[in-house]
Design goal:
- The protein contains 12 helices and 16 strands.
- With about 375 residues, it is of the alpha/beta class.
- It has a 16-stranded parallel sheet that branches.
- Helix 2 runs antiparallel to helix 3 and helix 5 packs parallel to helix 6.
Length: about 375
């Protein structure tokens, strides 16, 4: 009598067709968990479908473990909210996903311990980490774990910031850093930003929000040699910033500068490659003279968004601006774009602009929500 044939005797190509005809992922994983060969067939069927893995709420974790066991090596991105995080899922990812490179995780106090251990277990593979912690989630242990990710190139963080943030100075190969302070009772949080970023010579993009940038406690290099994008929002600037010779874009939104005239002098010093400026500072960084000086010192400047606070709009000022932009028009592909956050100033600027000989060199725009 012949041995009976079963489904596991079918070639992978046939099993691929069977998996394709199953209704949903639950049914596929229920079949895949019955035998190692069926798990291999599910992996063959899935190919790179789970390169980006994002668990769904109310989906059984035991079935996700089947998916991870069979497709984990193909997963390079992991996105998880606080409502879908589980300790068991985190352990399975650490076990079965050796090629995981990027994670985007929202966490609460309840899962902060398992998040810490998860990060420490992925030290050899992660190059990009995005974390969002609610204000009840204490961060020291999590930020200490992040500081051990020596391969990390990108770190975006939103949540409560405390002494643990100083450990980020270990991430010397970081190329992109974002720190957004979210806490109760404070508008800004004092952070030794210059000390943290002092050895990050590869840093290209730096974003900080609700941060007080204060004078460093010890020596640090006064240059960010490769920084191209600098974004600060709701920050207080109380110290001189490092030079940024390759800076292309600077955004200083709703910031207060404690050093008189410093925002303008920083732009003048680093304006050689700047292509975009977006400012809404207190006090106003420019008067009529320094505004024109900024335009002259930033030959590649294409877009300028400003409140024009402290600047009086009159015909000679607008004419001088147009004359200079006309001389440098050949270096720009498009007309110079001036975005104003003040409707009255824009009205006067446009009125005087039409009286100049070359109004087409400037494109003006009013932006209300900024």
């Amino acid at each position: 009598m012949r041995n009976p044939r079963t489904i596991i005797d079918l070639p992978l190509e046939v099993l691929d067709i069977i998996f394709s005809n199953l209704r949903n992922l639950r049914d596929k994983l229920r079949l895949a968990q019955l035998d190692d060969y069926l798990g291999k067939a599910f992996s063959y069927h899935s190919r790179s479908d789970y390169k980006k893995f994002s668990p769904k709420i109310h989906f059984p974790v035991r079935l996700y473990r089947v998916l991870l066991a069979n497709c984990g090596t193909s997963i390079v991105e992991f996105t998880c909210g606080s409502d879908t995080w589980s300790d068991l899922l985190a352990k399975s990812i650490a076990k079965y996903c050796p090629n995981l490179e990027s994670v985007n995780i929202s966490a609460t106090l309840r899962n902060s311990h398992s998040l810490q251990f998860f990060l420490l277990n992925m030290t050899n593979s992660l190059i990009s980490v995005e974390l969002k912690l609610n204000d009840s989630c204490q961060s020291p242990r999590i930020l200490n774990a992040v500081a051990e990710l020596k391969q990390l190139k990108k770190f975006l963080y939103e949540g409560y910031i405390d002494r643990g943030v100083n450990q980020l100075s270990k991430l010397v190969d970081l190329e992109e850093l974002q720190l957004v302070y979210q806490g109760r009772g404070y508008r800004c949080r004092a952070v030794n930003l210059l000390q943290i970023c002092g050895n990050m010579t590869n840093l290209r993009c730096l974003t900080v929000s609700n941060i007080c940038i204060s004078q460093p406690e010890s020596f640090h290099p006064m240059i960010w040699p490769n920084l191209k994008d600098l974004k600060m929002q709701n920050c207080e600037i109380s110290t001189v910033m490092p030079d940024c010779p390759k800076l292309k874009a600077i955004y200083i939104k709703f910031c207060k500068c404690r050093i008189r005239g410093y925002v303008c002098s920083f732009i003048l010093k680093n304006g050689k490659n700047i292509e975009e400026i977006d400012e809404s500072c207190e006090p106003a960084p420019f008067d009529e003279h320094s505004f024109l000086e900024v335009i002259r010192s930033c030959p590649k400047l294409q877009v300028l968004s400003t409140q024009m606070g402290g600047i009086k709009i009159y015909q000679a000022f607008v004419t001088s601006l147009v004359d200079f932009l006309k001389e440098t028009a050949s270096t720009r592909k498009e007309p110079f774009e001036l975005i104003l956050y003040c409707r009255d100033k824009l009205r006067w600027f446009r009125r005087f602009l039409q009286r100049t000989s070359n109004p087409e060199v400037i494109h003006t725009l009013y932006l209300y929500k900024f």
